[in-house]
Amino acid sequence: MKLFPFIILFSIISFSQSNLKISFKPYNLNSPYQFNTTVSDLAGTPFKLTTLYYYISNIHVYHDGGQHLNLSDTVLIVKNDNYTFDFGNQSITTIEQINFGVGVPLSLNHSDISTYPIDHPLSFHSPSMQWGWTSGYNQIGIVGQGDVNIDWITENDFELFSLGDDLYKNVQLPISSTSSNSQVKIDIRTNIEQLLRNINPATVGFVHSGTGANVTMMENIINYPVFTQGDFTSILENKMNEGELYSSIQSNEIKVNWTNFMNASSYKLLNIEGKEIAAGNIDSNKGEVIFTEISNGNYWFVIFSKDGNQLNRIRIIK
To answer: Distance between CA atoms of 125 and 78, rounded to whole angstroms?
Structure first.
């Protein structure tokens, strides 16, 4: 009889329901990417994307001490800014890892597209993501422009449509996320600069196949951090190794100066919860930025290298 209250409490904790959402937000060089905006790749080549479509499938979520939520019967299509998906109420408190495939698996890749409802991820899309029963679906589809003479005016169109069962890739991503207010979210960054690593957007042209640049792109998924956790904690845990930062507050302005940076590429101003307040590019080893109309509170100013490593940070209290 004395154990009964404990058993009831354990049951409530174990089977509490949280609304599960999974997002795949596009980033480039640590900044959220806005489509049709010109940015640079890891090599410094300017480019812009008008379209980024890709399939996510075979999802498995591990939580609460190794429990397994099997979502393998679900196929998602991530389309530009449509990157958040709601999986309803699940018996989840703490997320530990998510595994998923990038692309359409062999069991579905050569199915009849006409059998799917119009709003189904495997139905018809524009641009087309399925090239007939034999070729199957594009695992990833990218449409954009590159800049040949590095004048930040993009003029060379390129398209990467990766076709073939062999290009399907599996990702295992440790995640730290805890339910709050009956909601739990898995925030994943899709890092475009890593996806396009070793691919020159200015010269790659049109590649609709399972060869060449499409092989490189899909291999990048398993060899480089194309998909990373999008939480603030992981940013602050990166190693700091260069430069000096100073901040001052005058009236309603926050001024930040930096100097002695050799590898600085971008900065972010984040609030204490990790929400991005402002961001920009850095093209000199010293400089300053002024933020106006910033509410009182605690902030982090963080400088990143081109490959996404944190170089330094300073805490600002306004």
So the answer is: 12
How many Cβ atoms are within 10 Å of 138's Cβ, its own excluded?
A: 26
Length of the chain: 318
Beta bridge mates, 227: 190
CB atoms within 10 A of CB 279: 16
What is the reported pLDDT for 4? Answer: 37
CA angle 56–59–63, rounded 5-degree value? 140
Residue 5, pLDDT > 60, answer: no
Q: Flag the least confident range among 6-10, 172-176, 221-225.
A: 6-10
CA angle 193, 185, 181 (to 5 degrees): 150
Q: Which residues pair with 276 in a beta bridge?
A: 270
Reading the block at residue 86, the tokens are 């709601």
In what helix (H) or strand (E) does residue 184 lie, and over which residues does it extend?
strand 183-191
Query: Does the predicted TM-score (pTM) go above 0.85?
Result: no
User: pLDDT value at position 272?
Assistant: 59
